[in-house]
Amino acid sequence: MAAGDVTRRASITAPSMHRRPSARRGSLIKNPQTQSQEVPWDIIDRCALPIVLCHALAVVLSALLNAMHLSQISVFTLFLWFSISVTGSLWFYHNLQVTAAGKAVLVTGCDNVLGNALARRLDDLGYHVFAGFQNKAGNIDADMLKEDCSGRLHTLQLDITSETQILSASLYIVDHLPEGAQGLWAIVNCESWCALGELEWVPFSVIRRAMEVNLLGPARLVQVMLPLVRRSRGRVVLASSILTHVAAPVRGVHAASLAALDALAACLRRELKPRGVDVVVVAAGEYTTGSAWLSEEKLLEQARDMWKRLSDEQKGAYGEDYFEQALRSLEKYTKSPDADLTAVTRALSDGVTRTFPLARYTPVSPREKIKSLLAEHLPRSLYEGLYSD
Predict the structure, then answer these.
(1) Model confidence over 185-228: pLDDT tens digits?
(2) Which of 93, 145, 229, 343 has a 20 to 30 A CA-CA distance from 388?
């Protein structure tokens, strides 16, 4: 066995000597020379139903014209003509963008690489960015972000689980809005707490923390900031996960908290539609979010803490081998030192910049997209037979 395999297979409950991989912004966006595997699901999602309707309309219209002896035009010809017209119109509609001048955006969770990358992207596009950090004081990432970006970017101390900090941030934003701006153009919540483990293993304090960060914090943030967003008829963008539609072991607490956020967003979208405010959910894939903020060191740290907290009866019931196997099933999400955030940052920025954003973006791999579609549309017994993990 190779030395590298010995290191990797060391006991997950033993102290780890791994050094945390670097999370510098230079590694966040894929090298332009590397072939991108991104699939434009937003275009496909927007065009799929209209194309189906085009075919249905072509069938009906062709039958009517033939029955009335007005024309012998084929279904295929009509379908092709309708499809080209509709696709061209949708492409123009999809790519309309708002102007960035005089628009302010609040981005939370800039301590993690996803929020940091998004703040940089929006600053490059010309927006006034308020970048919220859970721990701003002495944070080298906050200092580097401020140094690298334009004078339009402001860094804030903003823990979304703190009522005081949310209110302080709202006052700061009001005082530093760009000239002529009536309010915030967008809130983008990238803060997340990834709690992993089977339900019996996860300490209740960790479950509570996951709910506070992934659900209660964003809900309170939106409550406080919504008057500012409503004035500008802007939008609320929430980062979620494909796990909300795809059940998987060891991810129950994380998926449950984000599923609740998805449900909240769906209701909020209908509440705010009459007021001209869009609500967008970006459900990223596991390979994106996992490599973005789940390092091997964090995984091992969570595993060791959970194992220590289990009772002797629980340890005997599951066994250390099963425990290790369950946690090591997540190692594949920690093995890429250079996280490619191209797809998810594009989706998040599209939620801010598009004139007509989609309600839901899914920057996921083809495999994850297929699995999600099957989970939604197949009978549950058949789906669980196909995916028995």
Answers:
(1) 999 999 988 888 888 888 898 899 999 999 999 999 999 999 99
(2) 343
Would you call 223 exposed, middle or buried from its count of C-beta atoms within 10 A (0-12, 13-18, 19+)?
exposed
The C-alpha torsion from 310 through 312 and 318 to 323, rounded to 10°, is 50
Question: DSSP characters for 308-371?
Answer: HHS-HHHHHHH-HHHHHHHHHTTGGGT--SS---HHHHHHHHHHHHBSS--SEE----HHHHHH
Residue 245 · residue 291 · CB < 8 Å: no
* CA pair distance 196, 256, nearest whole angstrom: 11
Cα separation values, 64 from 36, 58, 125, Å: 46, 10, 50
What gap in Å lies between CA 169 and CA 157, rounded to an integer? 7
Helices 113-124, 286-293: axis angle to 10 degrees equals: 100
Locate 281 and state its tokens. 């959910």
pTM for the predicted model, two decimal places: 0.82
Reduce the DSSP state of residue 130 to 3 states and report it: strand
